[in-house]
Design a protein that fits this description.
One of its GO terms (molecular function) is arginine deiminase activity. By secondary structure, the chain is an alpha+beta fold. It has four helices and ten strands. The relative contact order is 0.14.
Length: 183
């Protein structure tokens, strides 16, 4: 509601062509903590407790139809529980090729459902992978990247670090991060 008011009435934004990708009155939901802009062409969105797949698909269609510049949307399915309510609490980009990740969002063998959504004429094409590392490399055009596990991947330390927002890191520039002092 506040964002809508600002976009419609503040002189810096009103009548400036700022796109709104989802109507707040819809039954589809995307929360800000589930959206991560990875590059000028790729956005990642968590399918989570607070963001549903239908909203994500609608957002992707609108991004592509409006020529937003985004060429790929990565939909990352995270566990549906309060401790991991948003993508940014368990996965954050901290440099062009580095990400913090809470190990518990992946299966024991390192798999996680990732859907790549791309424009396909007037429609969209969705492909599935269970390899986050490979999907990110491909989407970002990287030779390699590093997934930095919360708590160094330790089965006891990682959940405690995640509870204290160990994966919730704010990158203010590539490789320059702000985090809680307890992490």
């Amino acid at each position: 509601m506040f964002t809508e008011y600002i976009l419609n009435h503040h002189p810096r934004f009103a009548n400036k062509g700022v796109e709104v990708w989802l109507d707040r009155d819809t039954t589809e939901h995307i929360e800000g903590g589930d959206e991560l802009v990875l590059s000028d062409k790729v956005v990642a969105v968590g399918i989570s407790q607070r963001t549903n797949a239908k909203a994500l698909e609608t957002m992707a269609r609108r991004l592509f139809a409006k020529n937003s510049g985004f060429e790929k949307v990565l939909a990352i399915k995270i566990p549906n529980n309060r401790a991991m309510m948003h993508l940014d609490t368990v996965f954050t980009m901290v440099d062009y090729d580095k990400f913090t990740i809470h190990p518990a969002i992946q299966s024991k063998n390192g798999k996680i459902d990732v859907f790549t959504i791309v424009p396909d004429g007037d429609d969209i094409k969705i492909t599935h992978s269970d390899d986050l590392h490979a999907t990110l490399k491909d989407a970002l055009g990287l030779d390699d990247l590093v997934l930095i596990p919360t708590g160094n991947g330790d089965a006891i330390v990682a959940p405690r670090e995640q509870w204290n927002d160990g994966s919730n890191t704010l990158a203010i520039a590539p490789g320059v991060v702000v985090t809680y002092n307890r992490n």
